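Hi W.,

Here's what went into the run:
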Amino acid sequence: MKKSICLYFQVHQPNRLRLYRFFDIGKDSHYYDDFANRTILRRVAQKCYLPMNALLLELIEANKGAFKVAFSISGSVLEQFDRYAPEVIDSFRKLAQTGSVEFLSETYYHSLASLASPIEFKNQVLKHKEAIEHYFGVTPKAFRNTELIYSDAIGEMVYDMGFKTMLTEGARHVLGWKSPNFVYNCAQASGLKLLLKNSSLSDDIAFRFSDRTWADWPLTGEKYLSWLKTAAKNDDIVNLFMDYETFGEHQKAASGIFDFMRFLPEVVLADGEFEFVTPSQATKKHRPVAELDVPDPISWADEERDVTAWLGNELQNDAFNKLNEQTEKLALLNDESLWSDFGHLQESDHFYYMCTKFFSDGAVHKYFNPYDTPYEAFINYMNVLSDFILRVNDAISVSDVNFAAAKEEKTPVKKTAKKASTARKPVSKKPIKK
Amino acid sequence: MFGWEFPPHIAGGLGTACYGMTKGLAYNDVDVLFVMPSASGDEDESAVKIINASDVAVDTVSATVDEFLGKVQFVHIGTNMVPYVDPQDFKTIVEEERKRQIKGFRVQYGQKYKFSGKYGANLMEEVARYAMVGATIAMQYKDQFDVIHAHDWLTYLAGIAAKQLTGKPLVVHMHATSYDRASDDQVDTRVVDLETKGMMAADKVMAVSELTRNICINRYGIDPEKVVAVHNAVDFTGREKLEVERNVKEKVVTFLGRVTYQKGPEYFIEAAAKVLKRCKDVRFVMAGSGDMLNRCIRHVARLGISDRFHFTGFLRGKEVHKMFALSDVYVMPSISEPFGISPLEAMQTNVPSIISKQSGCAEILKYALKVDFWDVDAMSDAIYGLLQYPAISQLAARCGYDEVNSIKWNDVAAKIKGIYQEVIDKN
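Here's what came out:
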């Protein structure tokens, strides 16, 4: 059996917030910096999404399906594509039609819901599934959580939603002496198979590729293949997971990243030791070698590979708690715009901007970051959140009044109708089907 | 009168105070020649004649240059004493400074010096140059004035120089002391030195409050006979009532000022947390910026009250008035405040105020609630009371409004005129 290479690319852009002052609270409920969001999206589309999609399509066709990749595209970025660059959606759809591209499931808003509320987590996964089906006509079978966040408990939730494959980080503190280049089982749900990112080989492309001070610069397909062989000498699979913006945005086109990707499949396939697989194929093909115990959440971020980039200081924790306190109240409301804002405020990026670990991983944290300091990020976010909470509370009191009024009338038909609609609202809003 | 700034180009309260004072003096038939380092030409000269020190050449004081060089030299030596610098950096700084001095002195003789008038790294050098230019001006206008009035340490050297050259009496005005600007272990000794020099040389020292007067006496060792408290006033003319539509239903409690140690922002946060435990329908706002801001944000997040506690960053001009208009209670928990003009502005906008007993304005305000800055319990109690009991907040708002409107620069200027008369007579 040939060894496998599994390529997965993350596509996501957050809805950056506008400068929202205290004076705006209660007055203006538009929270987003549309200009910045549009500008950044259009730029990344031109530099990365469109040229790289075209290249991948070409490679898939040239290799007659032997070259395969997987994408996870957040709902937040899909909304932005729809609004600012619909041609990107078309180009992804073309890739979907080749059959060599797998689309992964994730939370619609690229959120941290898995760490806060199982119900909200499930809602967002289902919402994302609908979106992927709507845009690309395929149903995602494998799951990847925001920033590859994973723990035994999250694995169990994911398995309960019907997924058999999940992607996460090959975090050294979890693996110990074990190799990331095998398929593993979730410790709490043995039916869920785990694919672990090979950090060093993924980062060679994602972070080091254009670094001229790097001893191994320049990186060629042959050199990279020899590393792959060394890494997987006695192993089954190498998982290369990275941000899609690596191609053309983080690593500029001038660095030769596109040429590297153009020749890599050819070099690998000609050699014959490896073949390309998608995540779902990988877990069918390879047998899990062991269970992986992950009691505390891991992720692919920073040196620590934990969730402290989002929930590591008091600013982030306070903001996150204040946001999640709204979940219960929102469950009583059927207000499209409130749910949408709630989702966008959950985007993990907002919390990332409040991270104070700047000095170790500054370069990545600062990328696309609209704020000069985590403090500004926090103030701005809390101002927006305060307005949002006001709206939620207003809507609650309005619905209370309606409910009371309906009760007053004492017409049994109306009463039950009203009751049913309030109680079932979250369900009707986000239909759950298995 | 030697000042450092004058409206409209101001960085602090000094310019505003000088403006009000000169207008008041004009009302009391005192003519003022106002010397400032860098006038822009758009200053309101209705009450004063403004002399731009940047327009004056220094050549006429050549006889006294030697004497000056001593002083200038002293200041430069001081400038080099920067704390927390390793020997390597120190050497570079000293070298650069030396080169710049040589260059600087070359342009000084017989030439005009362009003052920046800003509070920057070269402040000490500008202070020294300003002294030289000030002396020149004093000689030029020798026959036109009777008394020299210098505002804050920045202008004291100029004041001393003018006094020595002309023999006219000198009054120095302490708007703030070094001990208000930083905690005890961090005071800038160069500034303390200038302040002491100025007060020693002066015939009379005016302090903006009894609090500041006590600091002058106890910390600087100035003869109590020589120091008088002259409280500030506020000039509200030309300010229209701002109609602001409220954006939140809740009551708003505001802190407005630099977020620095001596303004006591952390006591405000602690008090806010205590109030929020009792009543929910209130929001707290910290308006302003400063070196403690980030620490305060973390403090608020740690207490878990950030959905009720907001930060606005630095506010200017109209935004400040807007913030007052949106407020229901104003709190100034300063640890040390020579005077503190902002509660007066708040009260003028009908906002009841809570001020610390450690602020100068507490001496003249009857209708502001006063607490010790460290007494967080009393502060939260006062906030709660003003929020919950309309009787007291209405009283404070109404009487406070009348009170601050009765504090006039004209009256203050009359007092200053008396002091002028006294030093002239003594001379």
